[in-house]
Design a protein that fits this description.
The chain has no helices and 38 strands. It is mostly beta strands.
């Protein structure tokens, strides 16, 4: 399951109802030929991770990426290859079949809203793609937030379009309300759908009105909601954005990222956190009160919860939790400048992957040592400069916030094993700060060093134009310019 920004939809109820039942025919489906392989991670914003037998699929803010060699190399796909417009909002994979949903922001007469970029599927592991326009009455306010595959069926969780199913590769869609009411997302919070999961034929669906379960392909439903009279046995909140099922030790546990519904229902006993059930949904336990959970993953008995405040882990099925420290590479040369974790996944050989807004990281020893993988324009190649700063202009109060400081990166490349020194100067060429001094760095690498925008005495420097110099021992000195604006 993905994470995609779910924010002001509660106040934007300008939905056009879609007809229930079959018969919504997709007018244009396009098949693309063999895509040109794009190398490198599509974007540093990684919102979804799906582990398969042949590799890992990554949903990013600028398309879909795949690695079959543990992140050594990436291949990426975007709109040119047959995906929809925007960033990836959901991925579902089974064998050679992969479905991808995308979404983007668009400007309407009521302001900027989210829109669905449609769905794309490949039957040959990404060799060719078929694009299906966004199901529903309109793409506006109708992103598909999640996908699930069940036999020949694909199920999508959409805001404006509700829960929908296609059994003919997207040629037609059925709107399937997860209850006994006619589809009407304006009248029923349970028709605003954000997550869907298939567990051995049983469908679990998370909405703005609770968790729904169907064992017969959507014909009949059981709904589980927060109940203030028995709050210790129900989900923490009725706004359900993540679902996952854990099979371990002969027991099945259903896990959900649950949040409070802030309008319409107004139940003050709801709260955000994680909820789980060991009895098919009839009773629930909760934990991580106050945490915003985006995604849930498992490594055998271990449970991971990707959240705004980091990656949480439980070794005892939710009884206790701890949060991982800030992620940085083992050699200190790359950092994740964000506590927000969107997604996590574990491979069969227990390699932990984590997706953030500042890149993807992997660990082979349960988070003791990390390898941070990020994308950026390369330096010193094909006429590109040997160094640049980003973001530029840089606002220390806004950009790359971590531990109360903002950070700017000074990117550079090495041609041999060397030692690097980087110093910052003001417009009068007076020294302001030493970022790094005589630090050993490997050759033939693209690297960066970071600065928090503070001078030698620890005070934030003034707005203005600054210069920096990268000294590479045995290679030369290279200059760059940085604008600081608060």
């Amino acid at each position: 399951m993905r994470n995609f920004q779910i924010s002001c939809w509660f106040s934007l109820l300008l939905l056009i109802q879609a007809p229930a039942g079959f018969g919504q025919i997709i007018q244009n489906t396009y098949r693309f030929g063999q895509p040109e392989v794009k190398t490198g991670l599509a974007s540093n914003t990684v919102t979804d991770l799906v582990v398969t037998d042949i590799g890992i699929w990554l949903g990013t803010g600028r398309g879909l990426s795949k690695t079959v060699n543990d992140g050594l190399l990436f291949e990426s796909y975007d709109e040119e290859n047959g995906l929809g417009k925007g960033g990836v909002s959901a991925i579902a994979v089974r064998d050679d079949i992969i479905w991808v949903a995308t979404g983007f922001d668009t400007l309407t007469d009521v302001g900027r809203v989210q829109a669905g970029g449609g769905l794309s599927y490949s039957l040959d592991q990404g060799g060719t793609w078929t694009h299906v326009p966004q199901p529903g009455p309109t793409p506006a306010q109708n992103i598909s937030f999640d996908l699930a595959l069940r036999g020949d069926e694909v199920w999508i969780a959409s805001f404006g379009g509700g829960l929908s199913m296609s059994s003919d590769l997207g040629q037609s869609w059925a709107v399937v309300p997860p209850d006994s009411f006619l589809f009407n997302p304006n009248a029923h919070l349970n028709h605003r759908v954000f997550s869907v999961h298939n567990a051995g034929g049983t469908l679990w669906v998370g909405t703005a009105g609770g968790i729904n379960r169907s064992t017969d392909g959507g014909l009949n439903w059981t709904t589980f909601r927060h109940d203030s009279t028995r709050r210790n046995e129900t989900i923490s909140g009725n706004f359900v954005v993540a679902l996952a099922v854990q099979d371990h030790g002969g027991r099945q546990r259903v896990w959900a990222g649950t949040r409070e519904t802030t309008v319409e229902s107004g139940d003050p006993t709801e709260f955000r956190g994680i909820s789980w059930s060991e009895d098919f949904g009839f009773t629930w336990q909760t934990a991580l009160a106050g945490e915003t959970i985006h995604n849930i993953a498992f490594d055998d008995s271990v449970v991971y919860a990707a959240a705004d405040n980091g990656l949480f882990k439980s070794n005892d099925f939710g009884e206790s939790w701890f949060v991982f420290p800030v992620i940085e590479s083992s050699d200190g040369t790359r950092q994740i400048f964000s506590t927000e974790v969107f997604t996590a996944a574990a491979t069969d050989d227990h390699v932990l992957w984590v997706g953030t807004r500042d890149g993807v990281a992997k660990s082979e020893d349960n988070g003791g040592v990390w390898d941070v993988l990020q994308t950026f324009p390369q330096t010193g190649r094909e006429g590109e400069p040997r160094t640049y700063a980003y973001p530029n202009p840089f606002s220390p109060n806004v950009h790359n916030q971590l531990r109360g400081d903002g950070h700017v990166r000074f990117q550079y490349n090495t041609t041999r094993d060397t030692r690097v020194t980087i110093k910052v100067y003001d417009f009068a060429m007076q020294p302001v700060a030493t970022v790094v001094e005589q630090a050993a760095r490997p050759g033939s690498s693209d690297l960066y060093e970071t600065w928090n925008g503070k001078g030698e005495r620890g005070r934030q420097v003034d707005n203005g134009v600054y210069f920096y110099r990268v000294d590479l021992e045995g290679d030369g000195s290279f200059w760059g310019k940085l604008i600081i604006m608060n």
